[in-house]
Amino acid sequence: MKRMFEALEAHVARRAEVRAEMAAERIAASIHVPGVQAETTQGGVVLSGRGLMRRWINDARLRWIAGWSA
Fold it and tell me: How does DSSP classify residue 1?
């Protein structure tokens, strides 16, 4: 019985990882802000660009990523 649950847990973990990777790819592909690059990593999405923190606060196209509302 224990092996069955371990196998189920491993299967669910693999599926969750795949779904997280797919979500990160969708988020990275949806960012269309000049001067901001988005790339997927094992941990999620990394944004880079000059003045990114200031732009993140001022640009509504970037705020949604952090779940902020203006």
Answer: -
pLDDT at 69: 43
Domain boundaries, the chain: 2-66
Cα gap 24→67, rounded to integer Å = 15
Paired with 40 in beta bridges are 45
Distances (CA, A) of 63 to 13, 50, 66, 67, 70: 30, 16, 6, 6, 8
CA distances from 64 to 6, 30, 49, 61 (A): 37, 11, 17, 7
Q: What is the pLDDT of residues 43-69, one digit of tens each?
A: 888 899 998 888 888 888 888 776 654
Indicate the pTM of the whole model.
0.70
- Any residues with CB less than 8 A from the CB of 6 and at least 6 apart, and which? none
What pLDDT, on a 0 to 100 scale, did the predictor assign at position 67? 65
